[in-house]
Amino acid sequence: MDTRKGREEMERKKLVQGMVCILFCLALLAGEKEIKVSKEPEETGKEEEYLYLSYLYVKGEEGAVIYEYLGEEKTLVIPDKIQGMPVVEIKGVSNGYVEKVVVPDSVKSIGEEGFQECWLLREIHLSDGLESIGDSAFDGCWLLNEIHLPASLESIGDYAFNWCYNLKSLILPSTVERIGKFAFSKCSKLEELTIPESVRFIGESAFNWMSRCKAITFEGLIPPVIEESTEDGYYNTIPDLIIYVPKESLDLYRRALPYFAISSDKFPKGRIIIK
Asked: Which residue, 1, 65, 112, 206, is the most exposed by fewest CB within 10 angstroms?
């Protein structure tokens, strides 16, 4: 992680926050509750951007999409509505102050880079209706140690929990169908993980450098498609891993996992144990 880049980003946000504060105070004096902070779409080719309290957002077809939080609250309770519109997606809320986040049930997606590099984030309560976690959504959330994934979740994006190396506990719900590449890379304190039967695809190096992981259990009778790793050394990153698979599917998993970190010729310490 580039600390100089991080400091520059913090300085940029402080400057933006100061400007936002001035604009919002002027808006309050004028009786306005929201401020348009961008030009018309036909002038910029982009969606109109609005400011409400400390949130920058755009108005989508289904509701508001929050893409930046400019405040300094340690506990962030995201509103379920902005100006009468449901908040349906969160993306780009990278913030160096937030330690706890509560996501409302209206949110269906944590978008790309939703909480990326929220370095002090330790606790997050996700919405019960959440359907997807986007690419790099929690990438670099170093202090995040536990997260409950709701039963509505279907997709986990690339690098979603990359560098969450304090994450100690994680249960994948039986609704998840896709796990992106490097999704749990460098989650070095996760000791076990169960892949539910619903999972159909696992991206490249999804479990790379989970160095303390002792067991991964596959529940499905039919193995998911597991993308080949192109990263050198991947097969040596989980030295004591044991893979559990259904007894009746042992041959299928042996054919499906040649690129996973249990191949006897590439990963001599790995082994398959029949469940």
From this structure: 1
Which of 44-72 are b and which e, b meaning 16 or more Cβ less than 10 Å from the residue's Cβ? eeeeebbbbebbbbbeeeebbbbbbbbee
Q: In the chain, what is the straight-line distance between the N-terminal and C-terminal CA atoms, in Å?
A: 40
Let me know how long the chain is: 275
- For residue 138, which of 130, 147, 129 has the smallest C-alpha distance? 147
At 166, give phi and psi (nearest 5°).
Answer: -100, 0
Q: For the segment 80-109, what is each residue's pLDDT rounded down to a tens digit? A: 999 999 999 999 888 889 999 999 999 999
- For residues 217 and 2, give the distance between their C-alpha atoms in angstroms, rounded to a whole number: 35
Alpha-carbon dihedral sign for residues 219, 173, 225, 205: negative
The tokens for 18 are 């100061």
Are the C-beta atoms of residues 140 and 119 closer than 8 Å to each other?
yes
pLDDT in tens, 170-199: 999 999 999 999 999 999 999 999 999 999
Long-range contacts at 20-29 (CB < 8 A, ≥ 24 apart):
20/51, 20/54, 20/70, 23/51, 24/51, 24/53
pTM: 0.82
**What are the structure tokens assigned to 117, written together?**
């590099």
